Amino acid sequence: MNPEDPLLKILACPLDKGPLHLVVQREALQSPEALYNPRLRRRYPIVDGIPQLLPSSGEQVTEDEHEELIERISP
Fold it and tell me: Chain-centre distance of CA 48, in angstroms?
């Protein structure tokens, strides 16, 4: 998913309806792209370019993962 994609402006977290942030992949060993809600600390995967935004597809992240994801959020 492209950080300039206009779709990113309208996508919202299925739980709190707030904005999501694109998390870009930096290295091949790290997890793939995802959309992240830092308020609830939930990460939603992007599979084959399609955001998986069902509440059940989101996963809660740990404090360490939260800090890493905040650093990886695309500007």
Answer: 14
